[in-house]
């Protein structure tokens, strides 16, 4: 579902240690599994590429509504990301420092949006939202903050666990920094990877969200893809493939940046998300 | 507004009580000072609490209340009655069948892929590629995914033509991409990668030392899995499967785009209420359906949490 930074030992050493153990030869069944999976996941991509044709990729940009819908999605992504970070980062830091007993509760609350279907949530939102909010697409951004919470909180939380948060905050305070400057100039830089994964997750979520946008009748990029499909199917398929590749590229870059940083500092490593992690390991 | 400030406050209680309860001096301090201190303590999470209350809890409460109201706001059980009978009951069953199948099968398949990836230590590139790809595909859904499969397994899709060329046209054997079976096949596309992502950490929790110890004691591979690996992994595995269940149940966009809303799934039925395809007098049935989904997911989550607790015990 997403990527998260989580604390672990420096990657290379761990890999080396496990490799040193007695490794059996690589059995056939593993290749069979990987080949079956490869066929299942790659054939549809290939089929879509064949269907769209190379030419369609060029004409995506000139299609009516492409620029405005993508523009709206990007604006929503920016607003959502900013609100998410401004809301979640101080809260997570505060809870870690002052109210550690509330951590489990916060974990519980932030996982709720995963289990509550967006289609149900939007029903309630449209009922209670005041008129001025319902008429602006930024209502979506406010709700996307809620949808992004599980990933954003877990990413930041994992980053905080890997830090000697108390020590660095006390050091910063005793050097005369206030809360704001401690957050911005001391905690933030130490959480770069974690915040980066939170941002990527949030952006990916906003750029791909269809359910709420379509039911609230706003034409974001995913909604446009569907609407446009009525007139030119090939261009819509091309746009879908483009969106997929861009997200992939995004995640790859983030993972690579994170891994490089982890090698240098021996700190957190960007790995792909997991809800189960914290629960299975305890703390 | 009063209420919204109070909500996080009451939640903060255990944290505030801890230190004050342990020291007799603090216990004797005046009530006002304690309240003030407690308010100051929780001040840091008030913005978050207010946001969650307004953006998540209130809308959900509105759905729950609306499920018990008729169009004039009077109390009624007719919405719930409608939601648990006829086409809507059928929708719940279809949704549950879809979710169970696309939780268990991708769960097993995802576990196998994850294990293959996990043991492929020397091919780090393969591992990195599969894990990142899982991150992308698990996020992939909705309309683009539907397009992919129409181009592949639609009546004139690429794979359909390939299969027809070798004499097995799936459409001659009862397959239809726009039916429940078709939706199940498509859901695999994001459920399997999701399973790979959530089960990998649990696999990493299997310490190599356990396997070595088992082997030193003379255990064979299947004995290791039967008595060591399996029992350790089982609770996490079941927990992940429940997560997949919730993911499949709440998915809306993919099935909607694939079947144009013709397939009777609860999430799609709720969506059709918002799209205005409603019989007069039944506007609030959609909310009753929403409440029903939340109840189903709540039951699944309770099981999930219980299983995770067990997993935590095993891995200590």
CATH architecture of chain A: Orthogonal Bundle
- Label the structural class of chain A: mainly alpha
Number of strands of chain A: 2
Query: What is the CATH first-level class name of chain A?
Result: Mainly Alpha
Rg over C-alpha atoms of chain A, rounded to the nearest angstrom: 22 Å
Largest sheet of chain A: 2 strands, antiparallel
Provide the β-strand percentage band of chain B.
Answer: under 5%
Q: Would you give an account of this structure?
A:
The complex is a heterodimer of chains A (283) and B (316). Chain A has helices spanning 11-20, 28-59, 66-97, 103-115, 118-128, 131-134, 138-161, 165-174, 179-190, 192-208, 211-215, 221-229, 233-265, 276-281; strands at residues 3-6, 269-272. Chain A is an all-alpha fold. A two-stranded antiparallel ribbon of chain A has the order 1-2. Chain B has 316 residues and is mostly helical. In chain B, helix 1 packs across helix 4 (46-66), helix 4 packs across helix 15 and helix 6 crosses helix 10 (180-204).
Question: Quick summary of this structure?
Answer:
Chain A has 14 helices and two strands; from the N terminus they run βαααααααααααααβα. By secondary structure, chain A is mainly alpha-helical. Chain B has 316 residues and is an all-alpha fold.
Give the arrangement of secondary structure elements:
The complex is a heterodimer of chains A (283) and B (316).
Chain A: E1 3-6, H1 11-20, H2 28-59, H3 66-97, H4 103-115, H5 118-128, H6 131-134, H7 138-161, H8 165-174, H9 179-190, H10 192-208, H11 211-215, H12 221-229, H13 233-265, E2 269-272, H14 276-281
Chain B: H1 2-22, H2 24-28, H3 31-42, H4 46-66, H5 78-83, H6 86-119, H7 124-139, H8 142-153, H9 158-165, H10 180-204, H11 208-216, H12 221-250, H13 253-259, H14 266-274, H15 285-315
Helix pairs in contact in B: 1-3, 1-4, 4-15, 6-10, 6-12, 7-10, 8-13, 10-12, 11-12, 12-15, 14-15
């Amino acid at each position: 579902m997403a990527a998260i930074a989580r604390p672990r030992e420096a990657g290379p050493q761990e890999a080396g240690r496990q490799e040193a153990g007695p490794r059996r030869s690589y059995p056939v069944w593993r290749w069979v599994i990987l080949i079956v999976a490869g066929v299942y996941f790659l054939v549809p991509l290939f089929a879509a590429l064949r269907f769209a044709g190379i030419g369609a990729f060029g004409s995506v940009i000139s299609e009516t509504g492409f620029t405005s819908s993508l523009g709206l999605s990007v604006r929503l992504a920016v607003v959502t990301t900013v609100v998410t970070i401004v809301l979640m980062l101080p809260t997570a830091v505060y809870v870690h420092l002052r109210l550690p007993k509330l951590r489990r509760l916060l974990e519980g609350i932030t996982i709720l949006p995963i289990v509550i279907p967006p289609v149900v949530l939007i029903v309630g939102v449209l009922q209670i939202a005041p008129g001025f909010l319902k008429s602006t697409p930024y209502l979506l951004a406010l709700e996307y903050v809620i949808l992004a919470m599980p990933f954003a909180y877990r990413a930041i939380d994992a980053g905080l666990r890997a830090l000697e948060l108390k020590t660095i905050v006390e050091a910063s305070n005793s050097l005369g920094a206030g809360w704001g400057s401690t957050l911005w100039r001391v905690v933030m830089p130490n959480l770069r990877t974690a915040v980066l994964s939170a941002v990527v997750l949030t952006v990916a979520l906003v750029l791909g969200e269809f359910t709420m946008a379509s039911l609230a009748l706003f034409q974001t990029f995913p909604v446009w893809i569907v609407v446009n499909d009525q007139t030119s199917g090939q261009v819509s398929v091309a746009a879908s493939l483009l969106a997929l590749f861009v997200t992939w590229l995004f995640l790859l870059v983030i993972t690579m940046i994170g891994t490089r940083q982890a090698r240098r500092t021996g700190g957190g490593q960007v790995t792909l998300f997991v809800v189960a992690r914290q629960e299975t390991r305890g703390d | 507004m009063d209420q919204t400030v109070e909500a996080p406050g009451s939640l903060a209680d255990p944290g505030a009580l801890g230190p004050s309860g342990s020291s007799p001096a603090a216990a004797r301090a005046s009530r006002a000072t304690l309240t003030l201190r407690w308010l100051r303590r929780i001040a840091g999470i008030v913005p978050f609490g207010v946001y969650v209350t307004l953006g998540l809890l209130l809308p959900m409460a509105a759905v729950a209340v609306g499920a018990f109201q008729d169009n004039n706001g009077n109390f009624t059980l007719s919405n719930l009655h409608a939601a648990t009978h006829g086409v809507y009951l059928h929708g719940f069953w279809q949704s549950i069948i879809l979710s169970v199948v696309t939780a268990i099968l991708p769960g097993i398949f995802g576990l196998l892929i994850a294990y293959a990836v996990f043991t492929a230590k020397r091919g780090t590139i393969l591992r990195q590629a599969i894990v990142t790809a899982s991150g992308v595909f698990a996020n992939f859904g909705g309309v683009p995914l539907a397009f992919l499969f129409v181009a592949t397994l639609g009546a004139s899709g690429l794979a359909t033509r390939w299969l027809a060329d070798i004499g097995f046209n799936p459409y001659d054997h009862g397959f239809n991409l726009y039916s429940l079976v078709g939706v199940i096949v498509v859901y695999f596309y994001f459920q399997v990668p999701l399973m790979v992502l959530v089960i990998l950490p649990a696999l990493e929790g299997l310490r190599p030392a356990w396997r070595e110890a088992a082997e030193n004691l003379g255990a064979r591979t299947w004995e290791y899995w039967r008595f060591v690996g399996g029992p350790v992994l089982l609770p996490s595995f079941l927990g992940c499967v429940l997560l997949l269940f919730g993911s499949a149940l709440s998915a809306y966009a993919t099935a909607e785009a694939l079947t144009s809303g013709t397939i009777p799934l609860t999430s799609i039925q709720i969506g059709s209420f918002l799209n205005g395809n409603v019989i007069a007098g039944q506007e609030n049935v959609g909310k009753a359906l929403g409440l029903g989904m939340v109840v189903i997911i709540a039951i699944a989550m309770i099981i999930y949490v219980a299983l995770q607790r067990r997993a935590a015990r095993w891995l200590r």
